[in-house]
Amino acid sequence: MKEFIAKKCEQKLLELNLQMFAGEGGGDGGSGEPGGAGNLGGTPPVCAEPISFASQSELDSFVDKRLAKSLETAQAKWKAEQEEALEAAKSEAARLAQMTAEERAQMEEKKRQEAEAERLADITRRELRLEAFEELTERNLPKELIDAVVLTDADACKKSVDSIEKAFRAAVEEGVKDRLANSAQPPVFGGGSGGAPEAGSIGSRLGKQSQQKQESKFFKN
């Protein structure tokens, strides 16, 4: 679930309109190589030589053979499935024949209860899914996170949404902090070295500025 939420957080971060990132530029737009998606700058795929036929009858014969082969494969698969189903039915019939009337009644009742439980569980899941959608919307969370919500019962659903929100908010906050840290630029100082100013350089510059102001004041007239 953490990986799923992290992925959704990354998508959410891309949608955030943060003005502080406005000057970063559009970037490269991806690291893909020029060319088609199936051939990323590599050698072109080797295509098989086209099949040619001397006459229409030769083409018809080729097509008939291919169709016959496909039909044979499909028939063999269908036959195997039918035989498997028949054997399963025979086994079930033999098992039922060995049961008493009471045992058969108990088995039928068990099947009925299982089917009813599955039907009710399906209804519960659908209802909880709708409620979870509404809850995610109210909390301004991506609806795609519904796939991570536990839909077994109402209590588990609510706890699941709470956990998802907590993890999502934390992931978004962490992502914003990382982007802020990456976008921060160190201050640029004079001197052409690109590093921090040398010791005494600021005081020396301020002293020169003060001296120039005094000279301009004394010799103004």
Automatic annotation (TrEMBL):
It holds the Pfam family DUF4355. Residues 198-213 have a biased composition (Low complexity). Residues 79-127 form a coiled coil. Residues 21-44, 182-221 are annotated as: Disordered. Keywords: Coiled coil. InterPro entries: Gp46. The keyword Ribosomal protein does not apply. Residues 23-41 have a biased composition (Gly residues). This is DUF4355 domain-containing protein. It comes from Enterococcus pallens ATCC BAA-351.
